[in-house]
Structures are given as structure tokens and as C-alpha cells.
């Protein structure tokens, strides 16, 4: 890693630390995700899978991978560093306006549409993995993503993801595909609107709640947006729209305005959503 000057730690999780760094060759700031040392075989498999997935993906709504390698037995990923808070931090400050939520949803759905077309399911769409930067929201952390071939480091019947944003099929340990990401995106957008998670309680209570009821869509939303959220939150995966349709409805449809007399152009606000690098 002689090419990089590794600076302060800016984030991290159970599997890796994220540092701000300087790329001496490209002369730019980057983010380096440095996995913890001496991983078990399952962790090595997960790291290798994340690297393969990130190396395939190129989309303005995703955080790009610049470089990777191994240093002193620790795998590292070099990615774009985008200044800005996580969506989770923004929501902690209060609900987002309806128009901003629609714009953010359109951008994320477009990114997911691309991801799904490449045969990948993210499996962990949540506000902490959406970062807000100057050029729009960016989805990150593909650490538990799964390819279309079903190759994954978890065994059949196991549960992968974050409980608060899991689809019913994830909670049941059933096969998971792109519809699970759509359900999670619906929960993210509802959280943007309300300022709190849709399914509260302990991990178990939150997970079980979605098996008993579909997400509640607040009143007063543009009718087309409200209908889309209901379909995205369908407990039956086959009843959910795909990401391409979600992006089309949110990004190009003429939504019924919340207050018609103000004649606000929702589409003009799609550019206001922002995001950055997810520590993962």
C-alpha cells in the first residue's frame, strides 16, 4: 500500500475499518476499507465476493472501486471518498420533505435496477448504507450481496441482512432475490418520510412484525407515490414492482402534487438528494 498515505479512521464495523487516505499516484483523496486480519474461511470468501461484485459495478448511484490488494495479510479496498453524512444521520435530524424523498428514491431505484440487471441482489439496503454527497445519493456496502448464481457464504435457511429492513422472505430464511431490495427500499423511503423505522422493537419483534402486517403508508402523499409504496411493501415478492419500474414512476411520472395550488414541480427537486461512502 505504498501508493497510499493512510490517515484517520472515519468509520468501520464488525469486519473492517474505513480510513481516509491520499492516493499519491492519482493525487486525490480516497477511502480505504481495511478488513480485519486473520479472517476465517467464511470471511475470506465474503471479502473475495465483495471484491468481485464491486469490480463489476459502474453506476453514478454506486460508490466506485478504484483499487484493491492485500497488506500484511489484510485485504483492502480503495474506493471513492465522498464527503457527506449517511442517510441515517440525516433522518436522525428529522423527516425529509416528500419531494426530496421521491428524488432520493428515484436515484436509488435506478442504481438498484442496474445492480439487478447484472445479476446481483444487495440484501442490505438501509439508511446507513446510503450516503449523501454533493452529486446525489450513493449506495454502498455490498458485503452481503448475492449473485444470480446463488453463490454465497451463508447456508440454506440462514438469515442475512439487517433485521429492521429485511423482507419477509429474508426473515423466513427463504431464497432471496431483487424483490427483497425493493421491500427494503420501501422501508427506507417510509423512514425518510416519518423520521423513524417502520418496524420498531427488538430484533425479534421487528423481524416478526413484517410477517404479520405490511408497511403503513402515511396519508397525504401524492396518490401515485402512495400506491407505489404499498406495492413495494407487498409481503408477497411477486406482488412488488421491479427497480426499473420504481425508478420510472418516481423519476419520470407526473405525480399528483401534495398541495396542487402551489404547483410545485416534483421532478425539479430530484437533483437535490445527496450521498457518500458507506463504511460497511
TrEMBL record:
Q: Does the keyword ATP-binding apply?
A: yes
Which keywords does the record carry? Answer: ATP-binding, Kinase, Nucleotide-binding, Serine/threonine-protein kinase, Transferase
> What EC class is this?
transferase
Q: Which GO terms describe its molecular function?
A: ATP binding; protein serine/threonine kinase activity
Report whether Transferase shows up as a keyword of the record.
yes
The EC number on file is 2.7.11.1
What InterPro entries would the database entry show? Kinase-like_dom_sf, Prot_kinase_dom, Protein_kinase_ATP_BS, Ser/Thr_kinase_AS
Q: Binding positions for ATP?
A: 33
Which residue range or ranges hold the Protein kinase domain? 4-255
> What is a single Pfam family found in this protein's UniProt entry?
Pkinase
Look up the coiled coil feature and give its residue ranges.
none
Q: What is the designated name of this protein?
A: non-specific serine/threonine protein kinase
From which organism does this entry originate? Amycolatopsis endophytica
